[in-house]
Specification:
3-stranded antiparallel β-sheet; rod-shaped
């Protein structure tokens, strides 16, 4: 701006010095040309200011878009890291569930084998029971006929109770096994058995 003012002052000074001669006309023409050039320069300056303003506005817009894109990229990266973490946890849980499933399948197979074994044993017991039960009943009946003792099975576990139906009278049996030895009780019971047939 200061350059233009200086040029204008020089131009005004030259005009004042010139007289109305040919050189003056020529100088006036040159000065007119100079004024047009100055006007063009001023127009160009105005245009440049406008273009610079537009460029600055575009740069600001691009910078803002770049900032927004960076923020979006950071959000996406954070979300991606979160998803990767969740995927890792899910994979670990999946591996744990697969291990649990494998263990449960193994246990199920073992239970099936145990069930088959139990079923087989039950059949064997059923087959054996048909043979054993009559002999057990026979032994029990034989014991009752020989000893003539009727047992009370509803007494406390530490007590032995019953009735001995002897040759002459019925005699109650009542022992506390914490008070007497097994040998004493056994001898007492054997002494009740009638040895005369």
């Amino acid at each position: 701006m200061a350059v233009f003012r200086d040029m204008e002052e020089v131009s005004q000074g030259l005009l004042g010095l010139l007289n109305p001669s040919r050189a003056g006309a020529r100088v006036r023409r040159l000065l007119g040309r100079q004024e047009r050039i100055i006007e063009r320069l001023l127009d160009t300056k105005t245009c440049l200011h406008r273009l610079l303003s537009e460029i600055l506005a575009v740069e600001e817009e691009v910078a803002q878009k770049l900032i927004d894109e960076k923020e979006t990229a950071q959000r996406v990266e954070t979300k991606l890291q979160k998803l990767e973490s969740e995927l890792q946890k899910t994979n670990e849980k999946d591996a744990s569930l697969k291990a649990d499933l494998h263990l449960l399948m193994k246990q199920l197979e073992e239970l099936k084998e145990m069930e088959q074994d139990l079923t087989r044993r039950e059949r064997e017991v059923d087959e054996d029971t048909t043979v054993v039960i009559p002999s057990a009943v026979y032994v029990s009946q034989l014991y009752h006929r020989v000893s003539k003792i009727e047992w009370n099975y509803e007494c406390e576990p530490t007590m032995i109770k019953g009735i001995h139906h002897g040759p002459s009278i019925a005699q109650p049996i009542h022992f506390d096994i914490t008070q007497h030895s097994k040998k004493f009780i056994s001898d007492y019971l054997w002494n009740l058995v009638d040895t005369q047939w």
